[in-house]
Hints:
mainly beta
Amino acid sequence: MKSQQKTQKFVRYQHPNNNIYYGILDGNEIIQLSSNFNEIVNDELKYDGIILKYNEVKILEPVIPSKIVNFGWTYAAHVKETGGIENLKEPFLFLKPQSSIIPDQAEIILPPRELTNQVELEGEVALIIGKRGKKYKRRRCVRLCFWVYDF
């Protein structure tokens, strides 16, 4: 019989003392960690014994990457709908600003209309690759946004 592991939800937040921490969200409480980002990615969790209410802290962006590199036109229908070039031999790459990352439940602020009148909904998946994978089914692939981290 397979055992099911509880999914942990990590948050990055500003403590009332103005310091920034990572924590594990458990209902409406945050179990504060003294672990840094690298330690969390490597499953080296250090608990410091502090538990806070979710509404007592300011939730921040999950990470502040140095670069956000995107792959464009990753499926044929998107190429056609945006007037792109089909069957490119190399990926179409573009960058996004750090301001495109927002915290959970934050307000999405649109640019002024004098800058652009074309704002489109776009979902992304961010990946931190740390373990090998196999037997992924191609039909389950999604359009990906890779966040590149400098450690």
